[in-house]
Amino acid sequence: MKYPQVIFFRNEKYKSIDNIFKDESQLNCTVSITSNKEELNNLFDTNYQILVTFGENESEYIEDVFSILDGKYSSRWIHLKSIRTIQDFNSYINYCFIDNVIKPREETRPKFSVFTSCYNTYEKIHRVYNGLKSQKCKSWEWVIMDDSPDLDDKHFNFLREIFKNDKRVRLYRRSENSGSIGNVKNETVSLCRGVYVLELDHDDVILPDVLSDSINIFEQDKEIGFIYMDFINIYEDGRNFTYGDFIGKGYGAYYCQHLNIDLGPDSINKWVNVYNTPNINNITLSHLVCLPNHPRIWKREMLIEIGNYSEFLPICDDFEVLLRTAVQPKCKMAKLAKLGYIQYMNDGNNNFSLIRNREINRIGPNHIMPQFFAKYNVNEVMRNLEAEEDHYFMFNHSKLWEREPSKYQHKYCNKLLNVDFNKQYCILGLKAFAQNIELIRELYKDSKNDFIVLENQFKPEELCKIMDSEYSSFSRMKCYSMKETSWEKLERFFHLIYKSCVLNEVIREKQENDNYMIPFTTELSSRHQIINSFSDPSDIYLEIGVENGYTFNNVHFEIDNKIGVDPDPKFEYSDNITIIKKTSDEYFSDCDDEFDVIFIDGMHQCEYVLRDINNAIKHLKSNGKRIICIDDILPQNYREQFKIPILHSYENGILKYGEPWTGDVWKVAYYLLKTKIYENKFTITFWNHPYYRGVGRIKILDEFQLPQDKATLDEINGYRYFSDYPDYLKLLVSFC
Predict the structure, then answer these.
(1) From CA 172, how far away is CA 189, in angstroms rounded?
(2) Does 351 score more than 80 pLDDT?
(3) CATH number at residue 388
(4) Model confidence over 180-232: pLDDT tens digits?
(5) Range of the domain at 301
(6) Among 59, 225, 690, 707, which residue's CB has the most CB atoms within a 10 Å radius?
(7) Do residues 617 and 709 share a domain?
(8) Which of 58, 79, 107 is the last residue before a domain boundary?
(9) What CA–CA distances, in Å, run from 118 to 204, 305, 352?
């Protein structure tokens, strides 16, 4: 073996150059030739010191090289267009080798060391690994200390098999199980070589930007020694856990965002509750629940300088080391206002967990906190950093946003950063969203604008469903809802909890009449009474969406003259009644029947209603009454007209609603009324009563078809309740 070891990476078209290396006795190094870019991973192994590429231009290798390596590896990369003699090659290699050896160590070592202590992790390690492999930053190593108690190395060998081909992973095994997490972390940190270190639990995930964002922050402000971010709690079955709206002595809170991350079988694509980690002051330092959870990121030299994790603490090690970080005068702390970490939770409590948690809650607040505060003068340190709040709040807890503005000023010592956005907009309520939709749509085009929608009428999960159904094109928006919280307090929530940009703006509701109700117009209290009022028993009748059969059974048509269509009817009927168990699309695709009256009461979504109207027009008798009835054309409030009801379920794959719901049927009626080319082709009448949500009767005078192309559907779906519904009501009344 001759040193250094060189990876000679060349494309297959240059393989003839391999002949120059046949006489190994002439080489003053060891050369491994490859055309497989995956073998560049060996450069993370310190036994491979130099990369050489060969060819007409180094640009043909840049994509492959930097898909594996970070830019800092450039000092170990030589590109050769030709090799005149083997002596020249030896000279280039050995000069580059020693030049890198004598550089400052931080220039040749990974930027980041991610450290993890393992304990019988097994398959869960895959998602941790997937999260690391997704990092935008390539300059990292992963230091794993296995503290599993098995004597036969079963778990350690499991890990070795997974990581045997990835030289970024440095795997260690203790000679015996410690069981003391503080001690194991202390030992693991001592093995890290990176400039920066991040603590990663053995079953958790960091998001793709975490390492790259942290490097940028550290390098832009050399005084910063510690960074933390926001996180989410997830159960193994995918459920999202929260502690509620009163957490962290009132300094913590949540917001919701849509998270889409590929983690193989643990991938997430849904709304999640993100814990907005509090700022740091004397109050939040007084209890572990208020302090930065994960991710926790230090400059390595800073973590070592403050003493590293305590080897004496089997629990509360994180509390103690965070207190040390906070009082270190050389260590400026920064919160990056961004989701950075997915923390997985075990579902259920065993005896060990219960005992451990009991000890954490005993030792932390009763011993570590008072003794550390006294020994290191924490209150005085925070006072000098202008981060001391009234000690009253240490034991008398209240939500920040509910404190009296004239009597409370939020103080903290950490730097508050937002690297993704330049300006933040708080939209106070869905009504404000709808009223200002065009402005918001324009602002949203700028990817450096951040948005949060705050509400007080819904549960957070209900608001997320609304955002999905009504505002899915605004996917990067966050949201949150606290029922029965005033708009003033929600605005304070934005300023005290969520806001992290100097530039910010609140978009409020416009004060205008929002009584969009048409007065009840009839004493006919049921749909069948309406239908019976303008039809004859001898007419041929079709009902789309019979569901419980109430209307179908009570309309006055002769049994042989009526047909019901529903894929999942919920009533019993005799053999002489015709109920076809199909969707309306399936029924019409194979139907030659014609009808006098067709009642559309199926799926209350505009796409389905539009198709049902078109199909109904095609199947009206040319010499019949030519009437189409449409149910639910008059929602009584904003919530009723959501495309998907907040309270819903699925039975046999069919949407079922658990609250008053009209869907967005009104949008199709609005399109029909406002489109001039149809104005002489139909007449319309409607009935409105407290027992239903508007029944419209359309008499077809001249056959037509509504377009079903994407542009038309986009237009229909684009109608908004607060801006377009009032105009719809005016048109409806004027047509009648």
Answers:
(1) 12
(2) no
(3) 3.90.550.10
(4) 889 999 999 999 999 999 999 999 999 999 999 999 999 999 999 999 999 99
(5) 112-392
(6) 225
(7) yes
(8) 107
(9) 11, 25, 17
